[in-house]
Amino acid sequence: MSETWVDLRSDTVTQPTAAMRAAMARAEVGDDVYGEDPTVNELEASLAQRLGFEAGLFLPTGTQSNLAALLTHCGRGDEYIAGQMAHTYRFEGGGAAVLGGIQPQPIPFAPDGTLDLRAVETVIKPADFHFARTRLLCLENTQGGKAIGADYFVLARELCDRRGLALHLDGARLFNAAIALGIDAREIARHCDSVSVCLSKGLGAPLGSVLLGRSEFVAQARRWRKVLGGGMRQAGVAAAAGLHALAHHVERLADDHRRAARLAESLTKLGLEVSCATNMVFVDAGVALPELTAHLEQRRIRIRGSRWVLHLDIDDTGVARIVEGVRDFGGLG
Ligand SMILES: *Cc1c(COP(=O)(O)O)cnc(C)c1O
Questions:
Q1: Whether residue 228 is found in the same domain as residue 80
Q2: 223/261 same-domain check
Q3: For the chain, N or C: smaller number of CB within 10 Å?
Q4: 137 CB less than 6 Å from ligand 1?
C-alpha cells in the first residue's frame, strides 16, 4: 500500500510545493495595512493587469473577497441576483444579509452553469418603495466545474447595462474556465465590474483570494476588508505563494482537466454513472456511497460525496490508484 493519500474531496487540500515554500521564505514583506508590503502590492497590481482591471485587493479567503465585493456594490436594502446554488448565496453563511442588510434574490442555475438572462430580467424589482433595490448580478465561473464562455458574459453585460446593474463574477476557479475554453481569462473578466479569484483552489496556494475592479471600487473594498477583520500585516509571505501559483500553476490546470476526463472515462467503463467538467468528476455511487467511501479510505483514497476533484497533488499514479480502488470495490451495480 502506498504511503501517500489521494485526496479527492476538494482542490483546496493541496500542500504548497517546495518551490512555493521557497518563494514564501524569500518574500520581501512590510505592513500591508499601511500599504507597505511590496509582495502584496506586486500580487494585486500584476493580477489586476493580467485581467484588465485598474486595481486589486488581496484577502485571506474567497468568502471575504465576495463579501467585500457585495458590501461595496450594495447598501442596506439593496439586492443581488445569484444562483440558487451559488457560493455567494448558499455557502457563505448569508454574510451579505448578516453584515450588510443586503437581500439575495436566488434563481436556479441553468444546466450549463449560467443564469437564464430572461429569468434574471423577470426578478429585477421595479423602482418602487415596496421593493428592495436590485443592484447587482452575481455570476460564477466555473460553476459546479462548468466553464462558461465569453459569449454569455457579453449578453450578461448588455443586460446589466440596460437595467442599471453592476456585474460581479465569483471567479474562484476563473483560470480553470479560461484554460478549459482555451481563451485568456481577460476575455471573461473584461465584461465584469468586479472579479474575485481564489489562489487556494486549483492554483495550489495555501490561502488567499484577490478582488479586482476599478480603483475607486477597490479603495472602498479595502475599507470593507478592514471592517471584516481582513487587514493583514506582513501578508507578503502568503502573497508570494499566490504570485508563484500564478506564474507556475495556471497552464498546468490542463493536466487536472485531462486527468478528470480520464478518470471519468475509466469509471464509466466500470459501469458507474459519471459526468465530468474541468477538474471535477461527479460520480453517482447511489446507496453504495458510504461503503465505497470506507473502502477507498482503507486504500488511502479520500472522497466526500459525489464530487471528486482533481488537483496539483494527484498525478497519473493517483488516478490509476483511484480506478483500481473502485474496481476492487465490486459493490456497484
Ligand atoms: C471556494 C470558493 C469560494 C471561496 O471560498 P473560501 O473557502 O472562502 O476561500 C467562493 N466561490 C466559489 C465558487 C468557491 O468554490
A1: yes
A2: no
A3: N
A4: no
